[in-house]
Every structure is written in structure tokens, then in C-alpha cells.
From TrEMBL:
This is non-specific serine/threonine protein kinase. GO terms for molecular function: ATP binding; protein serine/threonine kinase activity. It is an enzyme of class 2 (transferase). It comes from the Eukaryota. The lineage of its organism: Eukaryota, Viridiplantae, Streptophyta, Embryophyta, Tracheophyta.
Amino acid sequence: MLVKLSLRNCSLLGTIPDFSSIANLSYLDHSWNQFTGQIPPNKLANNMTTIDLSNNHLNGSIPPTFLYPNLQNLSLENNLLSGSIPASIWQNGAINSKDKLTINLQNNSLLDVLGNLNPSKNVILRLFGNPICKDSNIESIGQYCGPDGDGDDEVAQNPTNPTNVCSIQDCQPDNEYVPLSPVPCFCAAPLRIGYRLKSPSFSYFPPYITSFELYITESLKLDNYQLSIDAWKDGYRITMYLKLFPSYNDPNHMFNASEIHRIKTIFASWRFPPNHFFGPHELLNFTLLGPYANDSKRSKSSTDIDILVAVLIAAVACVLATSAIIILLVFIRHGKYQRMISKKAPNVSIKLDNVKEFSLKELALATNNFSSSTKVGQGGYGNVYKGILHSQTLVAIKRAAEGSLQGQKEFLTEIELLSRLHHRNLVSLIGYCDEEKEQMLVYEFMPNGTLRDWISGKNEESKERQNFGMGLKIVKGAAKGILYLHTEANPPIFHRDIKTSNILLDSKFTAKVADFGLSRLAPYEEGSGTKYLSTVVKGTPGYLDPEYVLTHKFTDKSDVYSLGVVFLEILTGMQPISRGKHIVNEIKVACRSGMIYATIKSKMGLYQSDCLDKFLTLALSCCQDNPEERPSMLDVVRELEDIVAMLLESDTSYPDVTFDNSGQMVPSSSLGSNVAREDQHKYAYVSGSNLVSDVIPTIVPR
């Protein structure tokens, strides 16, 4: 809603646009531009209060449509206007009798008046600098042609004054009568405020005093009688002097300190609600006089104290900053000495059997100063380097990244824990280094890499050993290592990041579980006896237990789920997540559609199909969404041992089978009786039937 349009002194050119379609416009100021042409003849909105087109290059005559009942200021001076002045602007009830209208037509080329030159007393007409002022035939023309105008800059006084009925001597010193108080002759101490409307939509204030008083008192949450506008000065900016009185219910007849602060804050911080008609405002003064002067002194004293406190705080801050700089310089100066002390010995040391404390120099020599050529891996803990110790022993050195560093006590506690873990399927800790802000773990080196390397056939030896039997051997070893962590470690350990890249292979392809440590400790116990670790979700996407992701409670069954994903990777060669698809969902879909054998990796070699069915059933049981339906790690190990035993049996009733490149199951030999072939196909059909139904088989705990 456009109420006021002011484009004063904007160097605008051309003709003045037609604004007659703006229904709510009340204030138009296009003065001090370079407009040319005639004034648009169409009538503007009926509630116009100000039209200022002065100081342009407008020509032609004044339109007779300037008939606005609320008009207060019509400024057309300093243009090139000619012709007659329409007297209808101020005649025939064109304006309200209580309003004041100023018409400034000075310095144009106006010749005469169209009508009678008899404006009412509330109309100020200025014609100086026009040819009409030289026409002596026009009666009383001289009073409108003076250069100084009519002195409309005088300060107007509010006529409301109760002293004509109340004796001024009845009020206490510094108090005065509240003009509109509902209690007759009520005296109180006013707050005196200088206030200015910077750009109102009018220039003559009296018609709008009542609405303005209502606007101010509602904004201040005061009653109407508590505001008195003592005086004001009309014009483009309306300056006024306000008095605010306390409530007549106040026994002290004055505002308290909190009320003064509240009112002053509203005036000083422009918290009045926006009003397009009254426009922006500014506070000229808020001086506390009379009985309020003491509050002013207290406020000043409080301000002085605040300044003193601020100075003291700044001084203390400077002293502290200077001290910090001096301490920093001392540390820099003696940095070499401090590093020498750090190299000499750690603050805390431990002595453990079979675990050696290495120096940083030893490990730097072992890795050619941690050369990139010796880097063999990278994980969440940091980089892994292949090193050769002085004794020609191959080792893997895990060097903690800066964000993985622990406190020295916590790090040594983890070393002590790891030194107590001994199992043929866990990576053995050889030693550690805790020196010069470095934390490193030294493990036995695994020459055949990770299980992921074996699945992908990263090297020739892995390719040669890719078969179903070797895969079973590897995962059985990994399961035994994890079972040891769950049941025999003290305290028990949940791995929380079981994946193919954390299962390492030694020279004989024996599985060694890696990357377990202090962060997996401290399981809590619920009332039901279920142990779980409440923690922020950690691990590798694709291997995470869905229940753990939802509840943030990690249990031993969460490790079982991750191991089940590893089983499926061995069978299919697939990644846990590929192209947005999860391996568990893909295998379940293949089972239900009867296409499971098409997903089995063709490099699995010879094996009994019965073993495949049992292994696939075990893998899917481990990956059940409900943790209670998953087998325990002990049941997983037992089932794997049974499958391996079946594979080793020389039972001719279950002939060996393999897969061709299309994924179809074919006999391992073209020899054999028709009965053998018939049994084989019969078995393939029966075993497949368990995996094409909607129900995934489960492993019953023993």
C-alpha cells in the first residue's frame, strides 16, 4: 500500500507521471527535479494532504481538479506555470473548516484568478513573483504578494488548559495539572519529551492530533489522558513537545525508575509500530527534570561505575594478553630443550611382556622416514606403513593421524589391553611408540593383504587360491577371532567395524582380525541381561546393523550382522553397497526369484552344492533385521565348522559342482552314470527350493 511518494531532488527528467490510480496516496513530493510539460489533469486520491511540485520546469495552467478536502499544502512555486488561478481550490467547501491550507504559487507567470479572490482565514495564499501581483484592479491583491509569506513558522499552543477551573497553587512544586485527567484537578510530575515527525504525510498537525495521541499512548501502553501535546511547529517536519503523566492511581504522583527506563527505551530505540501516515520519527530530548533529576544523577553515577568496571576489565585483559605473549615467547625460545626432554622419555611408561617400546627414530628408519613408497594402507586411525626392523622382521606400523591422538594415559591403557589379547586369528601387537606427539602401533605384517584383496584377486597368489574351500577357511578363522573378543577377552570387546578390509591374511591365508581397540569396550547391561554399548553410530556403511543405526545400541549381534555381509561378499564378489543397492537386499531378491545361482561368483571352483546352501542360509540368518533372529557368534562358528566338515567328506551322494560363466550349475565331470546325473539334478532342484520361498531359513541355536 503506497501512502507517501517522495522523489525530492532526484534529478528526474521528462513529464510527471499520472498517479491517479494509486488509491491510498496522500503525500506526493516531486520538488527540485527537472520535470517539464504540464501538470497531469487527472485527479489524485481523495485523501491527499500534500502536493509539492515546486522547483521544476512545469508549464501550462493549473488544473481545476485540485479539489481535496484534506489538502494542507499545495506547492507549485518556481515553475513556468501560466494562465489563471482556479479559485475552486479554496472555495466551495473544498477543504475542511478546521484544516489549514497553504497554497504557494510564487515565481510563476500566472495572470489572474478564475473566480473570487477571497480565501478563508485558514488558507494561506502566496502569489509573489507573478504578473497578477501588478494588476491593481484585483481587490486586496497586495496582501498575497508579499515576499515573506504569512509567518506560518510560529509555534502552536494546545488550547487545552485546566487552569481556568483549578488553582495552580494547589499543586506541589514541580507538579502540574493533568489536562485530561478523569480525576478533577489531579496534579503530577510530567516527563518532558522533545519529539519530531521527520516525514509525515501532512504539514498541518491539528486535524491529526487525536489520532496521533492514540497512536502514541497505545504504543507506550498508557491511557489517553496521560499524554498532553504541549506545543508543536507545523511544516514538512513537525516538531512537538510532549508531556507524559503518571496514572492518577499512583500515590507518588510520578513515574518510578522502571517506568522511566521503559518509556525512554521505546522512544530511543524506535520501538513504535510502523505507521506510514505519520512516517519516521526521532527523539530530540528526554531530559529528566524536577523530581526525576535524582534518577538522572543515579543513572549517570551507574554509567560512571559501568565505565570504570569496563576500564578495569580492559586493563586486566591487557595484562593477561601480555603475560600470554611472554609465556609463548619463552616456550618458543626453549622449544628445542622441551623437545629434547620429550625425546628422552615419556611422562608415563609401562613394561609389558612380549610388547616392545620403540623409539621414533627406530620406526622412521624402518619405513625410510615414513616414505610414501612404504605406505600400504589408510584407515580411520591413520596411515599404515610397511617397515623392516633392525632384526629384519617385517612389521605393519599404524601411525595415528592428528585427529586420532589420545591422551598418553589412555593410549598406554589401550596398549596394555591389546597386549593381553592372544589368539591365532587376531593380529598380534609387537610394540608401540609414544614419543614427540606421535602414537604408533606396531603389528605383525600380513603379506597377503586383506580379505577384500583376496575377493577381488588383487595379486596372482590370491587368484590362484580363490575357491569356495579357501573362502570357508578364511571366514571360519575370522569368526573364531571375533568369538574370542566377545567371550574370552577381559573385558569383552565388540569390534564395531567388521569388514573385508579389516580381515588380514598371513602367508598361509590364515585370517587375522584387525582394527579392534579401546573404543569398543565398556558394554552396559539392561535389566534383561542383554549387553550393549550405547554410542554414536560408527562403522562402515553397508556393514552397519540396521537396529544399531536406529537405537544407537551396539550388541554382539551387531558384529554378527557385519560378518554376515562379509559372507555374502565372498559368495558373490559384490561390494556391500553398489550403485545405491545393498548386497543383503539384492541376495534376498535373488533367492525369492530363483536366480540365486546367477549371483554366485564363478571363481568359487569345485564344491558341494549342499555346502553352498548351508553357507548362504547362514549368511542370510546373520543379516536378519531383527537381532533376536540372528545366531550368536558361537552358533556361527559351529555352523561354519559343520560346513567345512561336510566339504571335506568324500560323500559320492553329493557330487562336486561348479559354475560356468553364465552362472549355471554344471557337473564337475562329464563322466558318471545316468543315475548320478539324475541325483545331481534332483539335488540341485531340492536345495534351490529352500532359497526361492519368501521365508529366509534361520539357524537354530544349539
